[in-house]
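Entry for the shared binder. Reason: the reviewer on the internal report wants the predicted structure included alongside the sequence.
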Amino acid sequence: VSQYCHMKLGSITVSKGQTVKVGDPLGQVGLSGRSEFPHLHFTVRQGERVIDPFDPEDTATCGAADQTLWAEAPAYVAGGLIGLGFASTVPEFDSIKAGTAHKASLSQDAGALVLWAYMFGTRSGDSLRLVITGPEGFSFEHETTLEKTQALSFRAAGKRLRTESWPIGAYQGLATLTRKGKIIGTEAISLQIAP
């Protein structure tokens, strides 16, 4: 029996007793239950016994097991970007985790233009680059080296309004997370500045 927990509310596409085949969508990853970030909790059981799908016979002592339950084992991802967004101030971490921090549009007189990145599995020495581009040649870039290893974290950077207003139009945000010179995550997002 397989069990999927913390799925997105209302996204489940199957029902009890329904036959499914490889590749059929069951639902979407969510933030339901008592979870702190979007993820899928996946468990396999045989009777009452929990089984590791990477080592169903519980024989591996170091390294990969000889047999797995996977037709093709998923790649291990040791860190990356969960989300990206725009705001007019540095948002609270709770609003980022809840998925409510991103503003798809801001007014021309917003006090600042801030791009934030939500990350998982970051390590000391990882590098995060945040770039904002927009109309009339608007450009902002910020790069930082992360100092701590963290399960979940966010960073934000931006520019304060120094003129009467921001140029009206579409802005693009881009975040790139790098580890030892290799990109481990990249996300892009749009923002509209309106009168």
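Summary line for the report: Residues 1-76 form one domain.
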